[in-house]
Each structure stands twice: as structure tokens, then as C-alpha cells.
């Protein structure tokens, strides 16, 4: 109709609001409500506001409108308009009425039949499209709406390998979408795939994993599947792929261990992998043409296809991912999965928005979408079915892929109740399970407590990346003596009132780090801040700060290449900048292999000395002393029971450009680092070299 715009929306369970913009003169409107194509009742306005070109009419219904049906308003003057029901997701009883706690969402396969279930409570119609072969056309199957807004259908027979999608109609708008609970898919997530997981079983060799009695037993090494394997300077075969991570016997051109063997040479206990679920911005059919870290999630239950050995086989990514975890386990290495449940890639194109508009994403009080991270619109984790999706995904990775822990990206955006459900499940399955994340307090308008560091008391099972540790050490190692008190506090776990207030319940909550994937490298930091030093001197600082991380109380965390002073050429956030900025440089490893050997020595000492694993502040306080000795910091253990049969054990940190001489007892020896011990008639001295960390022991 000429210059006329109509909109009809369900604004309360029993109230329809019609808005008419028109250049035509206003006429009284008494629309007919059409339900599933049948005229049901004539509506009379209960409130009417008009201007020359605008009319807003409210129509009160006799009873709340039943969701899940097709609705139109038909008007003789203006024609028909579909009723928009998407605001129903905000009605007070929506979550209670439509929460579904079953475990059968997605495609549940057996040889006799495959059952499909999709939660779509607003939808008036859902059609399954499927085909058993890519050569066949898709066949439509009408799905039946059942309790809690779950649509279902059953395909009889064996449909393993079938491709499928859904057509979901909300407010008379139909979208084609993959399954948000899909466990397999073709390349780039274009179609979901039915998979027979009984044929994809893997022995995860948990018997080979040393027990972790507390988080402080962990030594975490962060890496990325592509970054760690893509460099031309090794004979890794499956470069950039899951299987490349676990090839044995691989070497650099200089004959040093590469890949898995290199990790084993370091002696770390956990490998943290940047996202390995399916993400959006790398073409899985041509992964060499793009690059991304993977913080743009697309399918939460499906491994990333660009890491598969056979790119066009939907099952290859599943087999390869499981094989990678199993091989890590065989060698005593636990696998931590980096997960992103705070935002998705392009919310408006996401399966969530297409299936249940206005539900999955968080809105601010003014109604605008919340983009707290600046990376994408926030998932509303506090909503029951969003929480269920997140928890179900975590359970799937634990049970089906053998994952040993989660690192939560921007955990401060996720609500605490969701995090607690995940930790309860993970720790019940495996006592050595580990959970930690980025606990930055990014604000927002959510009523529920969120997983930021300020709520550490609500999340005793979680560790937090300790930025206070990071910044204190980085400043101190640039010879800022003003942060000495802070450094002394973080060296003993940030959980006591030593110099500054406690930040955590225990040292199991502090992830001690100075470098991770999304910041500049520590080598580049020293290049910026200590341009007065030679490269050799800066590398000594890198070695020293790495040793300080290992010998601190808490959870030591090392980023790939940190141990050899890897550079990003001055760049910080290199999430899409490609291999040149991000890859492990094995040629550089050959040049600086002694640096990695010294980190391995420190890790071995930490693992063997139980005093570095204490985490209870009631033990830390009376057991450890931290003090300035000359121009160095000394961390010493004063409880002889912690270090028996050793009589004395001390860590010295000298960040200055000159040697520091400290008094020691006779029979003192050097366990780590280089220091000269000189004895004389009345005692002994240790000469701590400049820019070094030294561990001294007696007995």
C-alpha cells in the first residue's frame, strides 16, 4: 500500500501492539487475528494514540497468546502483517515455561534410526532437510513441536554420514541454519552431519597421566595447533594440523627435538591449546589462504576443520583431534582447551539468533546489544538454555574428547553459576581437572555475579590470569624498584597480606605469567623498554624472568617461544596476522636451544621440590620469607619440613646490571643458574651474576 508501514508485535503475553505509519488518512482499525491460517477473532483497540501519519493501537487478548503458532493481523484497510513474537523471550515466565533439561538435543544416532531435536520455542514451523549422499537432493521432513518448545522428528534406518540442516520459521520469517548441537559438519559448517560416534572411540590413556594433587602442580605451556607445527624448519609431516602436534621423533634442521618431542624435553605438565573447536574465519577447504587464532566461535561441539588431515572428510577432524589428545596423554601431558563462551562471530548470522531470536544474546538496560568485550555481542550465559548449551558443550569435550581442563576466554563476562556447573562436572569426572580464565572485570549490567577476579571467593575452583603478577614482574625486571613490594607479594602466591592485600583465596587461583598469546612477547617488551641493553643482555633478562615464573608460588604459565625470546616484531594482537608473526621459529630454537634447556632445568627442579607446590596461605605465611638482600630479592623457605632433607633453600633474583654478593652458609651449592661460591675462614659468599635468577641450597 502506498507509503504505508505496518508492524505488529506481541509486547505482553496477552497484548498486541500495532504501529501504522501511513500517508493515508487514519481510519478505525479492527483487525482479525489469523491463527495457523484460520480467522479466529476480531480485535478491538483497548488503547489508541494517533498523529497525522502515525497510529499506535493496543489490543488486549482474552488469554495469553500461545507461542509456536502462525499469527497474522488482517485489516481491510491495509492488508495483512505477521505478528512479531520475538519479545516473548523477555516475558517473566519464559525461561520457566520453556526450559528443557534433556540430553537429546541435536542428532542422536543409532543404526535403526536417527532422532533429531531442536529447541525453538518461538517457532511456528521447523523443517529438517537431509540427504544421505552429497549427490542427492535434500529431503524435507516436518518436525513436530513437543513440550518446552522442542521440535522433533525421527528418520528410520541407518543415516550415518547424512548431511542436514533446519528451516526455522519465527514470526513468519524462515531461516536455514545448521544445528547448534551438531557434533560433526562438512567444511566451513555449511551442513551439519550425523555421526556414528561408536565408531570413533579412542583410548585416552589416562593411566599414563601423573596425578595433579593441586593446580600448583601444573606447569602450563600455551600454544596454537598451526603456530606450533607450521614452520619450515622441521620435518613435521602434518604441518598446521592436529596430527602434527603429536608426531614422534621430529627434529629441527639443527637436530634438536621439534613438536611433541620438544614439549617433552621442556618437562611441562599441561598443554593449553588456543581454540580447537570450529571457528569461522579460516576457509577449511583452503586453510593456507587465511589465518586466525580462533576466537570467533561458530560450532561449539565440532573440532576445527582446518586442522584435519583430510579436509573434506567430516570425520577426519574428529578422529584427528581425539588422536592428538590420546597421544599427549600417552606421554603424560594433559590437554587444556581454550574456550570462548562470551561472544560469537556475527551474532545476526549465528544459528542462535536464527533459531530463537532475542534470546541468546545479552542486552543492556537501554535495549541495545551488549558488546562488553569489543570482540562481539555477549552471550547471555545467565539464561537457562544458554547456560545449558555452554555446560553441555563442556561436558561433550570432557567425555568425548578426553579434555583435562578449560581456559575461559574473557571469563569475567560469564556468570558464576554457569562456571560452577562446569567445574562441578569436570572435577567430579577427574580429580586433576583444572579450570582458569581471564578474570577481567569488564563491567556490564548483569544482575548475577560474573566470573571476574573480584568474585574470586565465589569461584574457589578457578584460577585467574594474574595481571598484577605480570605487570609487577615486567616493571621490576626493567629495574623499577618502586614495585619491589608488589613483586615480593606475587612471588608467594598473591594470597597473603605480605606488603599488599591478598588477591586470592589460595595460590591455586593465581596463574603466574608475563607473556601470553594476546600481548606482545616478553622479548619485545624488553626491546621497547631496555633499548640501552644489547640483545644478549635482553636475552639474559628473558631467561631470568622465565625462571622467576617457574620458581614463584602458584601456577606457572609459559607462552610458546617465550623460553627462547621469540619476537612478534613489535606487534601485540596478532590474531589474524599470519605465520610470520605467530609461528614457533624452530630456526631460532636451534640458535638458542640452551635457553630452552635452562627452562627445562628450572621446571624439573620445581617438579621435584614440593615446597614450590604449596598453595594454602596458612602454610605459605609462616613457611616462606621474602626480603631484599642488597640489590637482589631473596625467597627462602624457613620451614625445614617443607624442604627436608635439604637444610636451606633460597631463590635469588638479581635484575641489575651488576653482580650482587650475598652471605651464605658454608656447604652452599648452586642448584640452578650460575653463581660463584667463595668460602673464607668465617663463612661464605655467593656472587649472583647480573640479570639472573639463582637457586641455592645447603644440604
Give structural notes.
With 699 residues, this protein is an alpha+beta fold. The chain contains 16 helices and 35 strands.
Distance between the termini: 94 Å
Could you estimate the helical fraction of the residues in percent? 10-25%
Q: Which geometry do the CA atoms define? A: elongated
Class by alpha and beta content: alpha+beta
Number of strands: 35
Tell me the radius of gyration: 30 Å
DSSP strand (E) fraction?
A: 25-35%
Low-confidence stretches: none
**Spatial order of strands in the largest sheet:** 4-3-7-8-1-2-6-5
**Helix run count:** 16
Average of the residue pLDDT scores: 96
Major beta sheet summary? 8 strands, mixed
Amino acid at each position: 500500500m502506498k507509503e504505508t508501514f505496518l508492524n505488529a508485535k506481541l509486547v505482553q503475553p496477552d497484548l498486541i501492539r500495532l504501529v501504522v505509519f501511513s500517508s493515508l488518512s487514519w481510519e478505525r482499525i479492527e483487525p482479525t487475528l489469523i491463527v495457523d491460517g484460520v480467522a479466529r477473532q476480531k480485535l478491538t483497540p483497548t488503547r489508541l494514540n494517533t498523529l497525522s501519519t502515525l497510529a499506535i493501537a493496543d489490543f488486549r487478548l482474552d488469554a495469553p497468546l500461545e507461542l509456536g503458532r502462525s499469527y497474522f493481523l488482517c485489516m481491510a484497510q491495509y492488508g495483512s502483517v505477521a505478528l512479531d513474537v520475538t519479545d516473548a523471550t523477555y516475558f517473566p515466565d519464559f525461561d520457566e515455561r520453556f526450559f528443557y533439561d534433556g540430553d537429546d538435543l541435536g542428532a542422536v544416532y543409532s543404526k535403526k534410526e536417527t532422532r533429531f531435536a531442536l529447541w525453538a520455542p518461538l517457532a511456528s514451523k521447523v523443517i529438517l532437510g537431509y540427504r544421505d549422499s552429497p549427490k542427492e537432493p535434500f529431503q524435507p521432513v516436518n518436525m513436530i513441536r513437543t513440550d518446552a518448545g522442542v521440535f522433533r522428528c525421527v528418520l528410520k534406518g541407518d543415516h550415518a554420514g547424512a548431511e542436514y540442516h533446519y528451516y526455522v520459521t519465527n514470526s513468519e520469517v524462515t531461516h536455514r541454519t545448521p544445528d547448534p548441537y551438531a557434533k560433526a559438519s562438512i567444511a566451513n559448517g555449511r551442513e551439519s552431519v550425523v555421526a556414528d560416534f561408536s565408531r570413533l572411540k579412542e583410548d585416552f590413556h589416562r593411566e599414563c597421566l601423573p596425578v595433579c594433587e593441586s593446580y600448583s602442580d601444573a606447569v602450563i605451556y600455551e600454544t596454537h595447533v598451526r603456530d606450533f607445527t607450521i614452520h619450515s624448519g622441521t620435518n613435521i609431516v602434518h604441518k598446521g594440523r592436529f596430527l602434527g602436534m603429536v608426531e614422534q621423533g621430529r627434529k629441527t634442521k639443527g637436530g634438536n627435538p621439534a613438536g611433541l618431542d620438544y614439549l617433552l624435553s621442556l618437562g611441562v605438565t599441561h598443554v593449553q591449546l588456543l581454540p580447537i573447536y570450529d571457528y569461522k574465519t579460516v576457509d577449511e577447504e583452503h586453510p593456507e589462504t587465511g589465518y586466525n587464532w580462533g576466537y570467533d566461535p561458530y560450532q561449539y561441539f565440532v573440532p576445527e576443520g582446518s586442522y584435519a588431515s583430510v579436509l573434506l572428510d567430516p570425520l577426519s577432524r574428529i578422529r584427528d583431534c581425539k588422536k592428538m589428545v590420546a597421544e599427549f596423554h600417552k606421554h603424560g601431558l594433559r590437554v587444556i582447551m581454550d574456550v570462548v563462551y562470551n561472544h560469537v562471530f556475527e551474532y545476526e548470522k549465528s544459528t542462535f539468533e536464527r533459531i530463537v531470536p532475542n534470546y541468546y544474546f545479552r542486552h543492556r538496560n537501554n535495549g541495545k546489544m551488549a558488546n562488553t568485550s569489543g570482540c562481539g555481542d555477549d552471550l547471555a550465559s545467565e539464561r537457562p538454555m544458554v547456560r545449558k548449551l555452554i555446560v553441555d558443550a563442556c561436558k561433550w569435550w570432557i567425555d568425548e574428547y578426553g579434555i583435562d581442563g578449560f581456559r575461559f576466554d574473557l571469563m569475567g563476562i560469564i556468570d558464576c553459576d554457569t562456571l560452577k556447573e562446569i567445574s562441578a562436572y569436570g572435577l567430579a569426572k577427574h580429580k586433576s581437572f583444572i579450570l582458569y580464565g581471564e578474570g577481567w572485570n569488564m563491567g556490564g549490567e548483569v544482575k548475577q555475579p560474573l566470573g571476574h577476579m573480584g568474585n574470586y571467593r565465589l569461584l574457589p575452583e578457578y584460577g585467574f590470569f594474574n595481571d598484577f603478577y605480570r605487570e609487577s614482574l615486567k616493571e621490576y625486571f626493567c629495574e623499577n624498584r618502586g614495585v619491589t613490594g608488589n613483586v615480593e607479594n606475587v612471588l608467594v602466591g598473591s594470597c597473603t597480606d605480605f606488603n599488599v592485600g591478598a588477591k586470592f583465596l589460595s595460590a591455586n587461583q593465581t596463574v603466574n605469567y608475563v607473556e601470553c598469546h594476546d600481548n606482545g612477547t616478553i622479548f619485545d617488551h624488553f626491546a621497547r623498554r631496555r633499548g640501552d641493553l644489547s640483545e644478549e643482555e635482553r636475552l639474559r633478562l628473558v631467561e631470568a624472568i622465565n625462571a622467576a615464573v617457574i620458581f614463584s608460588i602458584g601456577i606457572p604459565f609459559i607462552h610458546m617461544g617465550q623460553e627462547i625470546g621469540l619476537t612478534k616484531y613489535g606487534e601485540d594482537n596478532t590474531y589474524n596476522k599470519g605465520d610470520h608473526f605467530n609461528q614457533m621459529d624452530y630456526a631460532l630454537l636451534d640458535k638458542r636451544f640452551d635457553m630452552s634447556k635452562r627452562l627445562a632445568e628450572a621446571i624439573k627442579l620445581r617438579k621435584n621440590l614440593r615446597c614450590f607446590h604449596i598453595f594454602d596461605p596458612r602454610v605459605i605465611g609462616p613457611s616462606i620469607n621474602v626480603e631484599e638482600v642488597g640489590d637482589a630479592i631473596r625467597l627462602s623457605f624457613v620451614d625445614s619440613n617443607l624442604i627436608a632433607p635439604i637444610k636451606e633453600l633460597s631463590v635469588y633474583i638479581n635484575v641489575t646490571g651488576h653482580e650482587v654478593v650475598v652471605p651464605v652458609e658454608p656447604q652452599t651449592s648452586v642448584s640452578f643458574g650460575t653463581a660463584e661460591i667463595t668460602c673464607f675462614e668465617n663463612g661464605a659468599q655467593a656472587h649472583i651474576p647480573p640479570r639472573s635468577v639463582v637457586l641455592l641450597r645447603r644440604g
